[in-house]
Protein: ABC transporter related
Organism: Thermofilum pendens
Amino acid sequence: MKGVEEAIIEVKDVYYAYPGGYEALRGVTLEVRRGEFIAIMGENGAGKTTLIKHFNGILKPSKGTVKVKGIDTRTKSVAELSRIVGIVFQNPDHQLFEETVYDEVAFALRNFGYSEDVIERRVAWALNILDLQRYKDRSPYSLSVGEKRRLALASVLAYDPEVLVLDEPTAGQDYLQKEKISQTMNLLRLMGKTVVIVTHDVEFVTSYVDRIVVMSGGKVIAEGQPRKILANYAVLRKANLVPPQIVRVARALYGKSLLERYDYLSPEELFNDLRRIMGNTR
Ligand SMILES: Nc1ncnc2c1ncn2[C@@H]1O[C@H](COP(=O)(O)OP(=O)(O)OP(=O)(O)O)[C@@H](O)[C@H]1O
């Protein structure tokens, strides 16, 4: 897909030092293309959250540039950029302000001046998708952590930004709710959205992303298709990531040297390949 879609976010040689002086980004260059799903992975403290905070201008680079739809983020307010790039942060408590779940999801829509009937439809749609409709009259603070995280996602989904950035979307979700998040990913794909997911969840990314960007020590240390990155033990080790189960099975079967050749991402791929090798067509 390289070179075909236009870049919607362009990060060019960005350095960022927090006020205390700690340099959390040390020369990051990255392009996110329209309609692409990418995962940013890396060990704790690698700089992932610091990087995504540059996407809607909460943080501005100390050096280098970040452009959103060709516009330098230094020239726009966070409110303006947030209409294009909606971020769902790791800690939902920082994003919930309203008295009811309904009002929480309606908040941005009211700010953007939508009519009440459009707001009502959009809120119901987003709450349904994330299995929160039954809580619509409750206080956001009465929800569990997993529910609060889904509520923060519903709020961003409802106002329909072009790019959605999700920081650890599957953390704290049980199996069923993880499925809800997965369905939401499929929906976003159908809607042609651009999605950036920050995650440590190697199993989750195998199904949803076109490209993985691996960060370590404030730098991008590798990027590429999931099947290449997730079979690269050296990169994964550097980023404190455990390879997906299927990669571990393939390594146990074929050994380290053949892992590049047998870069399965699902049990079905491995099974079909085994059938092919064994000549079993039943
Ligand atoms: N407000 C701050 N002031 C000073 N240093 C900070 C601040 N916020 C983050 N840092 C530091 O910057 C580095 C990068 O942090 P960041 O939150 O971007 O990492 P991360 O890759 O998102 O980690 P995690 O996987 O734990 O969420 C860390 O060493 C962190 O301690």
Q: What stands out?
A: The mean pLDDT is 89. The CA atoms of residues 30 and 126 lie 30 Å apart.
